[in-house]
Amino acid sequence: MQFTFKGGIHPPDSKELARDRAIRRARAPKQVIIPLSQHIGAPCKLAVEIGQRVKVGEVVGTPEGFVSAPVHSSVSGKVISVCDYPGVTGKMVSSVVIENDFLEEWIPLSDRPDYQSLLIDQLKHMVKDAGIVGMGGAAFPTHVKLSPPAEKPIDVVIISGAECEPYLTADYRVMLQNAREIIEGTKIIMMILGVTETIIGIEDNKPEAIEIMTKAAAGEPQISVLSLPVKYPQGAEKMLIKAALNRTVPERGLPMDVGVLVLNISTAMAVYEAVRYGKPLVERVITVSGEGINYPANLLVKVGIPVSDIIEECGGFKTTAAKVIAGGPMMGFALSDLSVPVTKGTSGILVLPEDGVAHAGEFRNCIRCGRCIEICPMGLMPSMLSVTSEKGFYEMSKEYNLFDCFECGSCTYVCPSKRPIVQLVRLAKSLVKP
Amino acid sequence: MERSRDQNRLIVSTSPHIRSEETTQHIVWSVNLALLPAALMGIYFFGPMAAAIIAVSITTAVLCEYGYQKALKKRVTIDDGSAVLTGLLFGLTLPPSVPLYIPFVGSFVAIVLAKQLFGGLGFNIFNPALIGRAFVQISFPKLMTVWLEPTAAFVFIDAKTTATPLGILKEEGLQKLLEHSGTYLNLYTNMLFGHRPGSLGETSVVALLMGAAFLLYRRYISWHIPVSFLSTAGLLAWVFGGSEGLFTGDPVLHLLSGGIILSAFFMATDYVTSPSIRKGQIIFGIGCGFLTMLIRLKGGYPEGVMFAILLMNCFSPLIDRSFRSNVFGAAERKGLLK
């Protein structure tokens, strides 16, 4: 039985640009910028001093509080600065700048071929110490997700290979090239949670990934691979749970309210590497794509590498390049400064040409055509949210369930009047209390 | 490698960074295009005066919108095609006999009073073209009820002025209407193609349906309002429209006459003044059908679509509020709170 969520859109997926580029390791950067906050939750406390020499995998920031994750150096070299540095959102984040000595000297890693005999608490600690956070974009600390409260037991894990954002192919390449590791990571996650059922959800525009993952999961009766008809925003937790299990997460609730935990396939892979090899999260696969970049690619990059290094690695801008985005085109952030670093949650760097973003400026009145209402996956009336916010009736926008919007951008995509609905929603959210 | 755009010239805006191709201008101009066959048929049947009426109506609408927006230092939006559409729709609802100040006055009322004073496109409560029509209907009742025989037709060939099929049906009955055409087949065929007296753009059902099919195919309108509107009207015509008791009415005749086809596909479906939510659109259509037949069968006017739609326009915001879909997980949240 195939379920789905209500609404959703079908933008051109544009994945052909980078789909067939195998993952390759990017050149190591001269220096990395490691933000002390790369996750949802409390920022880390600085654990190094200026001038100190660090190795790859050395902790540079220790977590403060439960909802937090340590950050590690991704190069060996010298700490040359600790300062406020802009992140992908443009906000200043306290960051550690490390100069690479190109020796690639690692901290001693603990190889654990016997990891299956470890205790659950040990496993959780390994995940936490590796600084693993959700790599699909939200960057929520994974060890917190793996510690649900006793009254909310998890009975199904969903590993998301949906990758519903156009252009992005990083998860796809990871599935093709690391299927075994993903399955092993999934088994560790199941072990920690004591769960006996896992669904790996993959959109059906990635048939090769579905095939390879199905093969890799063949010997595991508790793990099944589910092909999902393409629809944005299928990668959103609530939508994915609805599509995979027909369970509805309560309004303002969490997946654990319906006994589900959702993790991204790259996160599952990181869990495996953390447990099996003791490897902290210091590198990740990102997609570099878009019509404005010379050589699209899927790159294994060090966390903290400046975006400008990545652009250079991929042959630089085409003359048409007009906009650089960290993340996908639907929910990513446009960059004004290319010296910002890639973080654990960055899934791609896109360079779009001017005609791709032509509608950024002017917009017209809402004609109440209802397209946004029809496609809103949350069942909202984006048209009314945009009109109330535009006219300054921010309180009134709460009557239209302002805080249930998770800003997937579907409404803004379909709007024929090119209204910046998501932007107006963010404005209202920033001016009223929930 | 050329680097034409340094980072100081990067475009920065909030997500999403891609947009669909569809634009409001494209939708509105497509509706204009869809009305073209009906307008041409009107001109074919009723001659150059019909063309003049449409021209005055559109020109006045565009000039009024331009003048109003210029005077109030607002952005001029005549390029979106909505003023042209209001002018065209209003022109198509006029009897071909009216003097040219009628389209002028009506278009002015439609654009300035019904649209711009409410805040412009998107903020008007009532369909501007129909407000214009209602204004001239009430202000110039004599002029608005002089109907011409279609000159290109071979049926009503003698008299210059006559009554509309709906008028005949209401005042003299079906028999009288049949006398004009001879057989049912002739009557239906004439009405389907537009060989009949009536407002200049409403008579050719075939031309209107062609335009409607185009809009449905492009998904610029959905079936919900026209289907619920026409089926309600047809059902009521069948049940209550006959002279020999219940269930003896002629629904086909009712659907082919008057402005119901023009209205159901091109006016009741106006995005701005109809509900945005599908379920609500069905209620809206049923309401339009019911009020149309109430006026046609029991009211003082032979035709009721105009007032029916205007009345239902009032309810659109209310209908949208009542048929709002549930927020994802709202029911489950209630369960959780229990």
Determine the structural class of chain A based on helices, strands and strand pairing.
Answer: alpha/beta
Stretches with pLDDT under 50, minimum 5 residues of chain B: 1-5, 153-159
Q: Into which percentage range does the β-strand content of chain B fall? A: under 5%
Strand order of the largest sheet of chain B: 1-2
Please give the alpha-carbon distance between the first and last residues of chain A.
37 Å
Give a quick account of the main beta sheet of chain A: strands, pairing sense, barrel closure.
6 strands, mixed
Computed over alpha carbons, the radius of gyration of chain A is: 21 Å
- Write down how many β-strands of chain B occur, each being a DSSP E stretch of 2 or more residues: 2
Helix content of chain A: 25-40%
CATH topology of the largest domain in chain A: Rossmann fold
Mean pLDDT across all residues of chain A, rounded? Answer: 94
Name the pair of protein chains with the most residues at their interface, and give those residue counts: A-B, 75 and 47 residues
Low-confidence stretches of chain A: none
Strand content of chain A: 15-25%
Strand order of the largest sheet of chain A: 1-14-13-17-15-16
Structure write-up:
The complex is a heterodimer of chains A (434) and B (338). By secondary structure, chain A is an alpha/beta fold. Chain A folds into 2 domains: 262 residues, 3-Layer(aba) Sandwich (Rossmann fold), CATH 3.40.50.11540; 61 residues, no CATH class. Chain A has 13 helices and 17 strands. In chain A, the strands form 4 sheets. Chain A has a 6-stranded mixed beta sheet with strand order 1-14-13-17-15-16. Chain A is globular, with a radius of gyration of 21 Å. The model of chain A has no long low-confidence stretch (mean pLDDT 94). Chain B is mainly α and 338 residues long. In chain B, 59% of the residues lie in helices and 1% in strands. The longest helix of chain B has 24 residues. Chain B is globular and about 75 Å long. The N terminus of chain B is likely disordered.
